Amino acid sequence: MYDVIIIGAGPAGLSAAATTANQGLEVLVVDEYMKAGGRLLGQLYEEPDGTYWNGIKESNHLYERANQSGAEIKLGTSILNIEKSGDVWLVYTEKDTYETSHLLLATGAAESPSPVPGWTLPGVMSVGAAQVMTNVHRVKPGKRGVIIGVNPLAAVIASELQMAGVEVTALTLPQMNGLNEEAAHPKQVMNQLLHVAHMAPSALIRQGSKWMKPSIMQDLGITFYPKSGFKMWGIPVHLRKAVTEILGDEKVAAVKLATVKPNGDVIEGTEEIITCDFVCIAGGLYPLTELAAVAGCPFYLVDELGGYVPLHNERMETALDGLYVAGNITGIEGAKVAIAQGVTAGLTMASNHGVQGLKDRIEQSIEEIEQTRDNAPFHFHPDVKKGKQIVQEKWEEMMAAEQPL
Amino acid sequence: MSERITDHPVLDPIERKKEVSFLFNGKSYKGYEGEPIAAALLANNIRTLRYHEESGSPRGIYCNIGHCFECRVTVNEKQGLRACLTPLKEGMEIQSSGMLPTPVKEWRETHV
Ligand SMILES: Cc1cc2nc3c(=O)[nH]c(=O)nc-3n(C[C@H](O)[C@H](O)[C@H](O)COP(=O)(O)OP(=O)(O)OC[C@H]3O[C@@H](n4cnc5c(N)ncnc54)[C@H](O)[C@@H]3O)c2cc1C
Ligand code: FES
């Protein structure tokens, strides 16, 4: 029996582990990956001050801190199910069942698939897969790749691939298919890119972000875009072209690229073949919430947060006694926010376990989440703060409904 | 063609543990102990990890972090392990799974 079990050794889980173990609680962290750090491991980007955010170093640092605090960390172990029995949470792995009074779900995010004809060919992978292969395991995903999907994560990872000596020939749109309207619509995509424009070293985008704000100018901007696209970090970005098919026999050999109208429709006869040996699909991220769902947590769909999120309060408590959430399971954001949320969840669990005098620190940690969010170099969704507000309102509505009159 | 990245401009070199030999579909390859099977195979220029149970079409990694189950292989006779999550060990015998019989579908094709 542990005081606290944390599922997920990403930034949220590791920071929560150090925080609670430092309060004297007995803590077990379980993660199915072979290394601690979660999706932080693959991250590498330049901060506004010119230093690098090196995910491997940051992960090692968080791991060391959790380790030194006395938390037990078990890697290579998948959690298959969780269940409440009386006051105890049961946590099931393939071999063992663990018990705890406080259970934190810090399972992070997953990438949405975005099917394109030919996407099951070996050599087609999610953009995050290419990031992990390159930065974490140091194996090139291929020599020459095409990225389908133009969004902040795709742009950041494209630059990481280039840094490692992997050629990215193009970032392009998927073909509009009714399901992916937002991702395939040049105008919508431009809107998204404008929000990361300040991160782009390319003067073109930076200038563009000033004059393209009003909608009518955006229409012009898209129509005037040279069909050859523009360059971001030296990589051609095509908002007027879309991949209609991935080609290859036993593995990826090329993609078929076609010019699309500003509304996303393909212009017949414009198809060209681009050779490549790998293709990345960047369909965006959503919170990985399966375990919260099997536990019976109430959910709410918040697009600004990337999908369905388990309802929770500012202290990271869910509606179920003894069940907590932190990190990207509560909405898609960067690792620094996840670390800050882990601190709050850790303090809340310690407090609920009977550690006295934590009230002020919890309040302070909640403010720190806000500050970290405000200082983030970019947001996966520009309206993330609105999303957080929606969750807060829904939580309060639920609590009010539960109050006896 | 895939290759290992040995001189990254920003990231420190990773600690490569010992080099090990393993079998994939009966052929011998080399990789590093502790790296995911999927990475070791890709470094050997192998992308196809299995053949779809019904269609027989080749499949490789998709998510590379344990979510999609596209990378299932048999390791030392244990079926259904995710190649992207399973660390490589000396002497591992890895097998890609193949097409399974689809008796109901075949029966329907001739009877319905
Ligand atoms: C592919 C990908 C790439 C990303 N790249 C970036 C980026 O470049 N920059 C950026 O700012 N943000 C990126 N993100 C967002 C990222 O989610 C956050 O930056 C941050 O890592 C979230 O931290 P977390 O602790 O909530 O979750 P994670 O870092 O995702 O950690 C969750 C951990 O939980 C484990 N886990 C999940 N389910 C189970 C289970 N059932 N059993 C056992 N273990 C489990 C996972 O193995 C993982 O290690 C990326 C996300 C993904 C999915
Ligand atoms: S590639 Fe998705 S689970 Fe291994």
UniProtKB/TrEMBL annotation, chain A:
Gene: soxA
Span of domain FAD/NAD(P)-binding: 2-342
Oxidoreductase keyword on record: yes
Species for this entry: Thalassobacillus devorans
Protein name, UniProt field: Sarcosine oxidase subunit alpha
UniProt keyword terms in alphabetical order: Oxidoreductase
Keyword Oxidoreductase: yes
Gene3D superfamilies referenced in this protein's UniProt entry, alphabetically: FAD/NAD(P)-binding domain
Taxonomy, superkingdom: Bacteria
Pfam families: Pyr_redox_2 (PF07992)
Automatic annotation (TrEMBL), chain B:
Official protein name in the record: (2Fe-2S)-binding protein
Native species: Thalassobacillus devorans
Superkingdom per UniProt: Bacteria
Keywords carried by this UniProt record: Oxidoreductase
Database matches in Pfam families: Fer2_4
